[in-house]
Amino acid sequence: MPASGTTHQLHPLTGQFHEASREALYRSSIEPRVRTETSLTLSVATLIFAMFAISDYFYTGLTLEFTLLTTMRCLVVTSCLALAFVIGRRGSYNRHAWLHALPLWILATGIILIVPLRPDTLSTQVPAVVAATIAFYLLIPNLLPVVAVASLYLSAGFLAATMMAADASPVVVMRTTLLLIMTNGVGFFSLLRLEKLQRKQFALLQEERIQNNQLTEEITHRQSLETQLRRVAEQDALTGLDSRGHFMTCAEALLRRSRVDKTPFCLFMIDVDHFKAINDTWGHGQGDRVLTAIAAACRQSLRPQDVIGRFGGEEFIVALPGIHLNDARMVAERLTQQVAGLTVIEDMPDQRLSVTIGVAGVLDEAADLAALIQWADQALYAGKRGGRNRVVVSHEGR
């Protein structure tokens, strides 16, 4: 939800979200805090209410009125403490809004009953009602409609008790009424502003989380695209072998390591024999299947540390670190035998597959990868001129 639209989605009199699902989400987010704060503030409020029993004894002594006041205070305190405990465990604005309203009504009833039981202390009861009203609005967490109804009940009940039991003059009643109206007004608009501010902050945090999630998804998507692009750049789409550029990078690194470690390094150039005839006779689709099958056979014949790539068309190139030229020749001959034994092309029963391989090795530390490729390529073409389906070793670089 855009931050600029937050204000228009709040109710002007309750400060709540118009959207029920968003309001429920907000209430759920503050539920742990509300439970703790409500339980604590109710406990403190009821204990303060109980402490006024001391002033009851001072004004009434051990009389029937004191007994009634003490009984009433005990009932209020016991009920509110029990509710504070229950709210701390199960309180929820979404499911149990009435549970949060009960303590306010019980406290309000207890405060109202003090007037007929101690009518002579009306002057001290008015500030207590004002303090209780402010506490309802600002100290005890609750929904604004719940607080407003409980506070109006307290104010109306107190005024009614004042007129009926305290025999207050009209002037006193009028001043008390105006004071309570002002108190309720201040409390109502203060809580309304607080409710709106809290929900605006919640909406902004939600928007920030959404934007962060979108940003995270975008980053993940971009990383995925980069991985795909890197795979496309590094891998031949048809055979799954290294692309020419990626092979050259890896082979250069292997050759440098061989120079540092003073170990041998060999290179194959592999060409599929009569590949043009395969394409012309059986079609390019079958030609692609041939290349894929030969690429798989090459991978199976090589060591994990060897690097193989598609050099172009029907040509493959292999870098073999740490292997001498004679051993490389044996690997190449084994590879030609494996290709010759391929029978995966069912639609080409009369076509026998074969490859010609040119092998070059490095004994001269000054030789570079380009020279190796040239020597292997020359050996490859010598093999093709000599009849194909064979391995030819270059004597350059020895």
Task: Write up this protein.
This protein folds into two domains: 3-212, no CATH class; 244-393, 2-Layer Sandwich (Alpha-Beta Plaits). It is 68% helix and 8% strand. It has helices spanning 20-51, 53-60, 64-90, 97-117, 122-139, 144-165, 170-234, 244-261, 275-282, 284-301, 325-340, 369-385, and strands spanning 265-272, 307-312, 315-321, 355-362, 391-393. A hairpin with a 2-residue loop joins strand 2 (307-312) and strand 3 (315-321). The protein is rod-shaped.
Concise overview:
With 398 residues, the protein is an alpha+beta fold. The protein contains twelve helices and five strands. The protein is 68% helix and 8% strand.
| End-to-end Cα distance | 73 Å
SSE order, one letter for each helix or strand: HHHHHHHHEHHEEHEHE
Number of helical segments? 12
pLDDT averaged residue by residue: 88
Rg measurement, Å? 45 Å
Structural class: alpha+beta
* Largest sheet data: 5 strands, mixed
Which properties best describe this structure?
398 residues, 12 helices, Alpha-Beta Plaits, single chain, disordered N terminus, 2 domains, five-stranded mixed beta sheet, alpha+beta
